[in-house]
Amino acid sequence: MDALKISGLVKKYGDFEAVAGLDFSVREGEIFALVGPNGVGKSTTLKMISTILTPTAGAISVFGLDTVRDAHAVRGMISYLPEEAGAYKNLSGHEYLDFMAMVFLRDSRKAAEAAAYGARLSGLGPRLGDKIKTYSKGMARKLLLARAVMIRPRLAILDEPTSGLDIVNGYEIRKTIKELAAGGMTFLISSHNMTEIEFLSGRIGVINKGRLLACAAPAALKAQFSTEDLEEVFVRLTQ
Amino acid sequence: MNIFAVLLRKEIKELLTRQLVISIAAMIFVFYVIGKSVGSHSRASGASNSIVVMDLDRSELSARLLKAMGGGKTPIKPSAFTDIAPAMAAPEHAAENSFLVIPVGLARSVEEGRPSRLEFYSRFRKDASGMGPAMAASRIRKVSALAAAEASAYALERKAPGLPPAFLRDPAPAEEYVVIDGRTEKVPLGQVVGFIQSQSYFFPIAVFFIVILSAQMIMTAVATEKENKTLETLLSSPVDRRLLVLSKLTASSIIAAALSVAYMLGMRSFMGGITGAAESASASAAAAGPALAKLGLVITTQGYLVIGLSVLFCILCALSMAFILGILSEDVKSIQAMLMPLMMPLMISYLMPIFIDLSTAGWGIKALLYAIPFTHAFMAPQNVMMGNFARAGWGIAYQAAVFAVFVTLAARLFSGDALLTLRLRLPGARKKAAAQ
Ligand SMILES: Nc1ncnc2c1ncn2[C@@H]1O[C@H](COP(=O)(O)OP(=O)(O)OP(=O)(O)O)[C@@H](O)[C@H]1O
Ligand SMILES: [Mg+2]
Prior knowledge:
The structure holds two protein chains of two kinds.
Chain A: E1 4-13, E2 16-26, E3 31-35, H1 42-49, E4 57-62, E5 65-66, H2 71-75, E6 78-81, H3 93-105, H4 108-122, H5 137-150, E7 155-159, H6 167-182, E8 186-190, H7 194-200, E9 203-208, E10 211-216, H8 218-224, H9 230-238
Parallel strand pairs in A: 3-8, 3-9, 6-7, 7-8
Antiparallel strand pairs in A: 1-2, 1-4, 4-5, 9-10
Helix pairs in contact in A: 3-4, 3-5, 4-5
Chain B: H1 3-15, H2 18-45, E1 51-55, H3 60-70, E2 76-79, H4 84-89, E3 98-102, H5 106-111, E4 118-124, H6 132-157, H7 165-169, E5 174-180, E6 183-186, H8 189-228, H9 230-235, H10 241-275, H11 283-294, H12 301-328, H13 335-338, H14 340-355, H15 363-371, H16 373-385, H17 389-414, H18 418-421, H19 427-435
Helix pairs in contact in B: 2-14, 3-6, 8-10, 8-12, 8-14, 8-16, 10-12, 12-16, 12-17, 16-17
The complex binds adenosine-5'-triphosphate and magnesium ion.
The site of adenosine-5'-triphosphate (ATP) has 12 residues of chain A, from β2 and α1.
């Protein structure tokens, strides 16, 4: 069974068609990356998969369940990290992880376990005791990322997960994502970082103006355009 | 160009947003509505501004008093009645609220150096509001000053040696009686007027601030979660969305309930001060207390409970409306402007009763005011004092219904796309967004 299957997906904001008919699927344990220029509908697609927006047309199924009809069951399997998300500024890192673990797992023993795991994943150490408003952008992003995967969702939906992180932290996050995927977690990410995409993803979907232009492994795309540079593929595809 | 002028122009441009202009326009509209209805109200109500005088003495002195009082701005209407009660009940005096009785033997008392009195009666309805009572009080103050001067002159002309100066200064001091619902009590007019005014100014303004405060609180909470996108995270979680709405409303309701309890306690101690309960208040207030109580101007414990309930539902209504406005706000910054739809009815229901005596207002004004759920909280103290618990109860029921409607609407908005896509943009903002 596919972890994610999208067919004929359309989203309109008023008259404006942000997503104009997408079809693709993601296998379990795969890391799938959506790439494309700014404002082409990547985040909109991720929000529909995360059940917080309703598709205008088409269907999304997550592990066989429809995101509209079985929204509640889908929410129990996914974890969504919005782009440029914030956290509750007056909570400490620990309090935030505890709260979120409880919201998603609703079982205090499981939640405590998840929060402890999240604390380790975040790599923030003693700073977790400080209020989130004192964190730098990168620290907050690491906390949010840890929050997204600590509950061990079957499908993690991460919108630009490493934006704002320095090279070392970005590298560590990528390594963690790869390890978790090896353990069976499925990832759908969006990114503007070609190095990251090449390192991480099994397949990438290039979209422009709400449509899928290509969907293949990075190596296959490079071969198709006979270049060694994924960025060149991207530029030629989207022009 | 001078650098200061450049800076000044930039500051003004920043401040003079479309939102501000719309807010100002809305404010003008509110005052226009109030002004219009005040105008038509004062034409329609035709409340009398004269004093009915019953001269029972029919002496040279009483004639002079009548003449002296007639020299002021207040019209004096002589009346042939010989007793105050039938005079007040008479149909030709139905619109009159100020009466003066010049007692028999006034002239003789003054001539013999015995203090006499002038009896002023002021009639109010218990649900009186607006400027009327204060104006009546000032009318009586002016007329009694004229009468005192004339009576004093009369006594001095008689050159009574050995009489105390205090007597000569005011041989027939004014005695003030207040009539409410047919009950007459000798009580300083100022006390009663102060009490009535506290009903229409002081209590509503406290409610007004509590409402604004809690509305801002919940709007900021919703808009902040929206802006930080913490809301998106919560919405993608398996938590029931109705619980998310409920928890936010409950949290602000708890704070709102604490506020209304504080309000009730404040009101109680304020009333304690006026009606001079157990605690020692000022001497005159303590003396007036029993009289106010006899006039029926007291609130029982159940009364306080009803008022508190009404204030609570008023706040709940505001919270549920503010919740929706918070959902529609683009970000935290736009809250000030988004508060406008809540401010307008609040201002109308606060300001209108100050300028208009609701007890005599037309049905159009009443319908407008009672349609606004906040009015019922503002009116609760008066309803309770009049013993009109049914009306207070219906008010609370209406508030509860409005609350239910808005909570349902909020929950519906919260579980759809609208939360992320629907925005009440003001005209200026939309153009800018389209240009991007
Ligand atoms: N709430 C909304 N209302 C109206 N239009 C919207 C809304 N959200 C997004 N859009 C429009 O939909 C289009 C797609 O937006 P989306 O956020 O999905 O882009 P994106 O691919 O994630 O871009 P980026 O790489 O910059 O994050 C854009 O043109 C955007 O202006
Ligand atoms: Mg995006």
